[in-house]
Design a protein that fits this description.
heterodimer, A: 516 residues, alpha+beta, Hypothetical Protein Pfu-838710-001, CHAD domain, 7-stranded antiparallel sheet, 15 helices, 16% strand, B: 209 residues, alpha/beta, Rossmann fold, 7-stranded parallel sheet
Amino acid sequence: MCTPAALERIAASGVLDSHLVGEPSVAHLVNIYFDTDDLRLARRRVSLRLRRSGNRRYLTLKCEGGGGPSLDRRSEWEVEITADSPDLAAFRDPAVHDVVGAVLPGELQPRYVSEIERRTLPVAWIDAQGRPGRVEVAFDRGRIAAGRSEEPVAEVEIELVGGSAQVLYEIAERLRAVAPLRLGAMPKAARGHMLLTGEPPRPRKAGRIVLERAATVADAMQTVFRRCIAHALANEVPARIGADIEGVHQLRVALRRLRSALSLFAPALPEAGRQRWVDEARWLLGCLGPCRDLDVLGEELLPSLAAAAPLLAPRLEALRALADAERRRAQGEVSAAIDSQRCGDLFLQLACWTEQGGWRSAATGTVLATQQAPLLDFAAGVLDRQHRRVRKRGRRFAELDAAGRHRLRLAVKKLRYALEFFADLFAGKRVDPYLDRLADLQEVLGEQNDIAVSRLVAERLATDATGPALPEVAFGAGMLVGWQSHRAVVLEARVGRLWEEFRAARPFWSPGEAAA
Amino acid sequence: MIAVLVTNTKGGCGKTTIATNLAAAFAASRLTTALANVDRQRSAMQWLAARPSRLPAIRGLDWRKDIGEVPDDVQRLVIDAPAGLRLRQVDQLLTEADVVLVPVQASAFDVDSTRRFLDRLGELKPVRKQRKGVFLVANRVRPRTRASRRLDQALAELGHPVAARLADRALYAELAATGLGVFDVGGSVAVEARREWLDLVHAVEDSLA
């Protein structure tokens, strides 16, 4: 995905000219997307497309969501049809109807259209290891239109025809060097739906990761990184638009999971490559942090304080107004960061690295051996270490100061992500109690952290405020801090008990070993 | 599979009309559809027997004696439960169902008996635990009449969503005799009827999405 201008620059640069192995072909593609009046297909996260290409017609049904290579259910069907109407009966597979549900004749109407001119170049390329590969590079130019609104489409698609898959990433890298390119966060159907309804895509949660028990560490890394990238990309647009605070939050979760994965898999990763992604993820997290803090203040803490003290609620208004203004500024920083080339490069290059298994180059000795090791033992070792680390950070729990609590919370979080990646590999009746206790503990530690952060934010707002609003802002900030301090006392009474409960939970991955 | 139970212990409120038309709507959507007949009067079976073979097929399941097996490939099952069923029997059928439709008829509407039925339905475990959606279906409505206004008021008090309001139409007697549903006939007569039925189909589908 790129801007139309960038596409023209790439197309005109001629970087692929010397690699052409045939005449470029041009096709005019018209895609008509159908849905019911109440957009039931979209709500089921299904898109139905009729594609006209020359005098042939194809009907395609795609389900998104879930996704990922571990999904064994089919998620795409295509049939060639003769009429220009989207007759679902053309799909012979009854599973199609399980996906779309009851759709009666005449209910499906065209909702949005994409018209694309696709110029396809047949390319032969020799990769850095000297292996040949054949690919098709397609330049898509056109527009998506829904009713009276429309927007341009500019995309490059690189598809492997045969030979070395490495070629795909080398070509992507070469094109990116000419003009900014980034991974498309939204399929055309999602863009059409946004044009049609004016609603941005909804923020997405990470979803379950299912790893094969027989996998190697390298296989698992690839799956985990892929899912982290997909999670982040799915939340790029929601976070950039900021209509739902979940967008920024989920993008942050995706980046934190990525950072945890980079740290948990560190024994299997060459240090130089690893550190680069850690730094880039930290940079983007840093851009999102201030916005998230103000989101929590404005959308969660202030409303619940106003509800708890309705008589005093009007006196929070000045603080709220200042927080809103700050939030808009922070949202501007979020959007700028997401739109930046640095962010585009992060995900494009991380995806290339992930798909190529970029960790293989520069891997030697124990790092290489760990990559090829069986996942199950590795995962048990990781969980073991993280479990012991949490226990260590929580030693003499009652005496921990704020910094100590913070370190404990981070250790708990990392253990939690490790469990999200690996817990499904293990079975047994001890799994759920362990996960539940950890989740309970993490929740309270998280709330305590939110309280600490909100105190800082409220204090900063009060310090920065000037002019006639200052006394009211200070009063509101004082109210908030006072109320939060009270909540902290209540939580403090619970957190000690939850810690003891977690301490009593027995690890489920390798009995006995983790009893540090 | 999604199973829809059409039930009301009171007779004559149009259960079979609703069950057969809903089954026909699913079949017209190309879903593999079955219609289970629990009623001794076999009216749903008679409708099926009259159904022309050129139309999308609907499988009949005879559940008059026992709740039978449902073939694996069935995607939508509609259960036509008879009047005067005992609560224990409703309970058995409920365990098979995902959605419950309770038809009520405008002209012969008895708030108290319907409320009693809904209350008793609410005591059954799957409903109490809110695992099953229970919808009312207003049947044989004559729009803009006193009776229909009274019905609307009464339905609002019952505390369950109204999935659709189906107007009183001569069409249904014809459909019943010929094995058709509103989505199987063309023409302008059925246009309005189809619109009302879409509400019902959407309510059923959305309650599970």
